[in-house]
Amino acid sequence: MSSVGLLYVGAVLFINGLMLIGVVPAKAAAAMNLFVGGMQVIFPTLIILQSGGDQATILGASGLYLFGFTYLYVAWNTLTGASGEGLGWFSLFVAGCAVVYGILQFTLFDDPVFGVIWFAWAVLWFLFFLVLGLGRDRLGLTTGWFTLLLGIFTGAIPAMLLLTGSYATGTVEGVVAAVIGVVLFGIAWALGRRGGVSQEERVVAPVAAAGTEGI
Length: 215
Description:
It comes from Leucobacter iarius. It is found in: Cell membrane. This is AmiS/UreI family transporter. It is a multi-pass membrane protein. The protein is built from 9 helices and no strands. With about 220 residues, it is an all-alpha fold. It has one domain (about 5-215): Serine Threonine Protein Phosphatase 5, Tetratricopeptide repeat, CATH 1.25.40. α4 packs across α9, α5 (about 85-105) runs antiparallel to α6 and α7 packs antiparallel against α8. The longest helix is centred in the N-terminal third of the chain and has 24 residues, at about 25-50. The chain is globular.
């Protein structure tokens, strides 16, 4: 994934996380989903058209569509009031593809850090499936916090490292990234469960919005 595209993936995940935890109204997040979704469809198309048929380049660009279509789907649901089930099941497809892309980062591209990042995205999109596709509303806040945290730690931070030439990958860095990913999920889980019975009241609004207006 290009460093520029990754930066804005971080931005839209951050906004969508805030939406899921009830800080940002769904309609207020629609514009960012449109902008980034469009970018994540246009950019890989241009890359593929200019690739000269190079399979590695095409493979690298192909994963961007998964994100682009997700964010455009979110914007569509928000602006039309469509239910979230279709987006939820699409998220299951994205989660499965993300696992494959993660494996390829380890085996084909020798990039353990991005392998871990792809696996983290697989977990996140699977949570989207559970919340939107299966209606597991109790996971709404956990999903929102995990979305927000991954926007920072799998989007903004690695993008900045790439843009400044400071990115490094290897076995040690991959292990560190995996530990950070587990810790972030633990934090999201704790924040999502915080408040006991009152958590159910807090989750109603953002999950209801997610069900009708997107991630």
